[in-house]
Design a protein that fits this description.
It is a single chain. The chain is built from 19 helices and 18 strands. It is an alpha/beta fold. The chain folds into four domains: about 130 residues, Rossmann fold (3-Layer(aba) Sandwich); about 170 residues, P-loop containing nucleotide triphosphate hydrolases (Rossmann fold), CATH 3.40.50; about 80 residues, Helicase, Ruva Protein, domain 3 (Orthogonal Bundle), CATH 1.10.8; about 60 residues, Arc Repressor Mutant, subunit A (Orthogonal Bundle), CATH 1.10.10. The strands form six sheets. The chain has a five-stranded parallel beta sheet, sandwiched between helices. It has a five-stranded parallel beta sheet with strand order 9-10-13-8-14. Helix 2 runs parallel beside helix 3. The longest helix is centred in the first third of the chain and has 32 residues. It is extended, with a radius of gyration of 31 Å. The chain starts with a strand and ends with a strand.
């Protein structure tokens, strides 16, 4: 186990020598410097967990070194020490970013306690930084895989509205990633250090949903033995994400309208009004316009939540993203499971792209996880996929005329699937070649050449 590293900075050679020797006996890896310049040189060469810096360094000022350290090496904790300490100088040191301010002569036990506290603080900061990095990888924009032209407006919208207070409504089919979008908005907002609280409204009956959102006081209803803090109060200073909002009852819709307008509410059975500072993101896979027309959803609430609408395309609308999504999921499962699976065969990719994906991205993730865990080789083939995905591949009309294996080249065998994929994308884009090329991830010249080679002409499929 590595020893904690400490840089001791003092212009008194005798103090420097005796203190460094003693600190080494306490299990620390100690380097020494007699000037600010020497200290900065050492800092540029290696990281230090803790710095112990004298305020007076000959012609140098220890506070200058503190300021440079906080700016360039913020993870290093700095302890200032002086033989001329005053309350004002101590306050100045703490305000400047010092972890502690010690007065000479230093008492051994007090010095080691200060160093241990500084090491503990550095460990906490490092863990928080690592956690933030993990959250960024999990919920940041880099984790939202997609190159399809239909995803570009989604990315642009997230960047545009992330740092505003506007209420956001995320719509799309089940499994398209609405929760991930909500988390990405939060991670890119000024509320990133605040809580992100998610509520699956459709999973709770109305009687429990109100208590879940707003809390309750003891005795509010049978079984309410103690006070409960609701999700809106938990999310104060951050973001609350209400998923499946289309399932809310008329009575709950009235309560939500008030919260969204005033950011105020009372706990169930209580009289105290709570004011909160929250950003509200909602999601639904229902058509709220139709629900309003039927009278199932309040029109005033719909207008209140539909300030910004992010509509997510279904997976079958962005088939060009399926290969990179599948490979991304494969690598995640491989890392977690340790399985030696590297990639998908061309035939497996074709099967994935031909399948309709009623469960969207979530279903694709489950299929890939199953294939990686149950597959027998380094390459996933159609045989590793569920039967419903394989059957789509095998029933493809363009494959009906494929000659038996051994009677044609691989290039000839792949022309049918390639022709069908390009045709599908052309038709979905009304034969707009620019959109088709973008969706397929190729340039227009390449698309024109492929269309000519595969006998594809505008508006028809040439046999």
């Amino acid at each position: 186990m590595n020893k904690p590293s400490l840089l001791l900075v003092d212009d008194d050679f005798q103090v420097l020598e005796s203190m460094s020797d003693w600190l080494c006996t306490q299990g620390l890896d100690v380097d020494v410097a007699m000037s600010s310049a020497d200290a900065l040189q050492l800092l540029s060469e290696k990281p230090f967990d803790v710095l112990l810096v004298d305020v007076r360094l000959g012609d140098d000022d220890g506070f200058d070194l503190l300021e440079k350290c906080r700016r360039n090496w913020p993870s290093s904790q700095v302890l200032m020490m002086t033989g001329y300490g005053t309350p004002d100088s101590a306050v100045e040191a703490i305000r400047a970013g010092a972890f502690d301010y010690l007065t000479k002569p230093l008492i051994d036990d007090e010095l080691m306690m200060a160093i241990e506290r500084a090491l503990s603080q550095r460990k906490v900061l490092t863990e928080n930084s690592n956690l933030k990095a993990q959250l960024d990888r999990a919920y940041g924009m880099d984790n939202i895989v997609g190159q399809d032209t239909r995803m570009k407006p989604v990315f642009d919208m997230i960047h545009s509205i992330a740092d505003t207070r506007a209420t956001v409504l995320v719509t799309g089919e089940s499994g398209t990633g609405k929760s991930m979008i909500a988390r990405a908005i939060h991670r890119h907002s000024g509320r990133v250090d605040g809580p992100f609280v998610e509520v699956a409204c459709g999973a709770l009956p109305e009687s429990l949903l109100e208590s879940e959102l707003f809390g309750h006081v003891a005795g509010a209803f049978t079984g309410a033995a103690t006070d409960k803090v609701g999700k809106f109060l938990q999310a104060d200073g951050g973001t609350v994400f209400l998923d499946e909002i289309g399932t809310a009852s008329p009575a709950m819709q009235v309560k939500l309208l008030r919260v969204l307008q005033e950011l105020a509410f009372e706990a169930v059975g209580g009289t105290k009004t709570y004011k909160v500072d929250v950003r509200v993101i909602l999601a639904t896979n229902d058509n709220l316009v139709e629900a309003v027309a039927r009278g199932d959803f309040r029109q005033d609430l719909y207008y209140r939540i539909n300030v910004v609408n992010i509509e997510l395309p279904s997976l079958r609308q962005r088939t060009s993203d399926i290969p990179i999504l599948a490979q991304s999921f494969l690598e995640q499962v491989r890392e977690e499971s340790g399985r030696d699976v590297k990639l998908f065969s061309d035939e497996a990719i074709f099967a994935l792209q031909r399948y309709s994906w009623p469960g969207n991205v979530r279903e694709l993730q489950n299929v890939v996880e199953r294939a990686v865990l149950l597959g027998k080789g380094e390459v996933i083939t159609p045989a590793d996929l569920p039967v419903e995905v394989r059957s789509t591949h095998s029933s493809n009309p363009s494959m009906a005329s494929v000659s038996p294996v051994g009677q044609q080249t691989l290039k000839e065998a792949l022309e049918g699937p390639e022709r069908q994929i390009i045709l599908d994308v052309l038709e979905s884009n009304s034969w707009n070649r620019n959109l088709t090329a973008d969706q397929l991830g190729i340039n227009r010249t390449t698309l024109y050449k492929k269309m000519k080679k595969l006998r594809l002409e505008d508006g028809q499929f040439a046999i």
